[in-house]
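RECORD TYPE: inverse folding
INPUT: structure tokens
STRUCTURE:
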């Protein structure tokens, strides 16, 4: 496991390892959406990634970094869904066992995915304190290694490979936008931009009802995520020291978006691009929707972080 901020060489090493199992996801565009917003938008489709989200990158790389004895004891984490599914699948592919702590309120589709991959689920209350306490219980019972969703430099290196792939294909982007919850994807994106495309400005997109990262960067210290209220169920967690430091020093800014804009963006992507994305992914387009002057005439890459949606609970039907 990495013990410091991932270097350029660390990210390249991660890319070399995960390519054996991870998909190299496509960059798609829509002329209709470009016309609506007056800029050129490329969508990095991590909704097509294994387990349906970018989280597979960091999870699989972390499993491949463990010793045989650690793999034998298994791995554990707490997650509302995407990291849970990614770690469960990664454990299965690595002949290991996953013990997943999930909030009782996690979407059914994400609970079902975790079970499908053969992991054992332990439920907790939907708050960080309950998650941490339950994980500690699991570790005491099993001896499993904790693979934190974002408070882990190895995970961050794995997530950074998403932007690395983008910069290998796109040489003239002005901005890259990534969602931010705990900050694993955004901090990885910041590092890849720094090493591989330093002229690109990195922006985080965050729900207004869960804007702790925005306030943390603004004020210079980590604000806890207390009773977040947003449709973006994958963005409910708060920054940690590792992600805060990387984002504070490398991101251009964090933009907050309303849930109404997220829903409108999600529906627009479904209708115009014919692909399924979840709210936490659509927020990158919502950031452009609410700040069109900033992006006018620019070339922007939006990371669509995942596509795990409960089709029985679509937001425009509720």
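DESIGNED SEQUENCE:
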């Amino acid at each position: 496991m990495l013990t410091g901020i991932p270097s350029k060489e660390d990210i390249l090493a991660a890319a070399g390892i995960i390519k054996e199992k991870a998909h190299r996801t496509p960059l798609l565009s829509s002329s209709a959406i470009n016309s609506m917003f007056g800029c050129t938008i490329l969508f990095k489709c991590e909704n097509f990634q294994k387990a349906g989200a970018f989280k597979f990158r960091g999870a699989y790389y972390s499993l491949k970094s463990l010793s045989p004895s650690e793999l034998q004891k298994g791995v554990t984490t707490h997650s509302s869904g995407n990291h849970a599914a990614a770690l469960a699948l990664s454990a299965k592919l690595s002949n290991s066992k996953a013990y997943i702590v999930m909030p009782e309120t996690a979407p059914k589709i994400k609970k079902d995915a975790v079970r499908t991959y053969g992991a054992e689920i332990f439920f907790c209350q939907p708050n960080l304190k309950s998650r941490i306490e339950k994980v500690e219980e699991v570790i005491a019972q099993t001896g499993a290694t904790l693979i934190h969703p974002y408070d882990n430099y190895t995970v961050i290196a794995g997530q950074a490979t998403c932007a690395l792939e983008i910069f290998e294909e796109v040489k003239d982007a002005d901005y890259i936008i990534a969602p931010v919850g705990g900050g694993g994807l955004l901090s990885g994106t910041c590092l890849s931009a720094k090493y591989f495309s330093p002229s690109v400005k990195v922006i985080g997109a965050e729900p207004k009802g869960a804007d702790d990262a925005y306030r943390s960067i603004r004020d210079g210290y980590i604000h806890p995520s207390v009773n977040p209220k947003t449709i973006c169920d994958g963005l409910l967690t708060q920054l940690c020291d590792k992600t805060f430091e990387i984002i504070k020093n490398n991101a251009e800014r964090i933009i907050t978006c309303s849930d109404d804009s997220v829903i409108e963006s999600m529906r627009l992507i479904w209708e115009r691009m014919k692909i399924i994305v979840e709210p936490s992914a659509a927020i990158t387009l919502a950031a452009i929707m609410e700040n069109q002057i900033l992006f006018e005439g620019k070339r922007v890459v939006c990371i669509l972080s995942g596509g795990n949606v409960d089709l029985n609970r679509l937001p425009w039907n509720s």
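NOTES: Residues 41 and 88 are 33 Å apart (CA to CA).
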